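Study the following:
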Amino acid sequence: MVTSTTPNIFTRRQTVFVLATLCCLLWGSAYPAIKNGYELFHIAAGDTPSKLVFAGYRFFFAGLVLLAIAAVGGKPLVSFDRRTWGQITVLGFVQTTLQYVFFYIGLAHATGVKSSIMNATGTFFSVLLAHFIYKNDRLSFNKVLGCLVGFAGVMVVNFSAGLLTFDFTLLGEGFVVIAAFVLSAGSIYGKKISQKVDSVVLTGWQLAIGGLVLTVAGFATGGAVTDFTLKSTALLLYLIALSSAAFALWTILLKHNRVSTVTVFNFMIPVFGTLLSALFLGESFLEWKNAAALVLVCLGIWLVTKEEKTVIPAP
């Protein structure tokens, strides 16, 4: 089993705060970056195959970057048994391929502001799933109340301005929520694997495998990503860099801490995503329903993790 040479650093409150906040900032910036990527690469809203290729490039190369870093650090990249390889492959397919099929399609059919708030449901899925998997992460009154308040926020953001219709589509907001659930399930599964595989190596392989499947699937169904310019290439490189950093750091934090201890910081993703989408996409943020939804989502996540007084390492 792989053990950390600094077993305490990733359980320190300051470390968790800084690294988790950085991850959430990077993930929040992905919303406007992806939508701008569609525009720069001239990928139409209904061109799903090209979206898969776009996502595949991002994650495949992000995985290669992490594997290269691990190799330079002298970490073994392939010395796993058949069972472990199978687990890594499943993780790559679920957490990268499956999740981002739903996420990229959903984001193309919903605004960046709305998607960033909808994606916060992943926090509540993580809490609910952890209850059935970990004995030290059971549901409590605060967690149940927090889940209800958070989902209320998700409901609010989908009402029209007149509160007479519910603005929700399966292909848009629905797919973003499904992506959040898949990510939550994949993260918990990855936490188990990370106890015996180095976190950077694990993240590198799951991103590379998942990204390769996305790329092949996109090309096989007629997709393509062209129009590589200095601006579009720089944006793709940014997406690759943010994926490498955020997923690796998040995997490390989940390895060394309880699920709910880490996911408390997820409230920052809709905050960063909403603000950055409004800033870079020119989307409306100052609508009462967006503000109310953001408050409810953040309140829900705070309630879910209210009893967390200290950072406790996972057994």
Residues 13-40 form the longest helix (28 residues). Confidence is low (pLDDT under 50) at residues 1-6, 309-315.
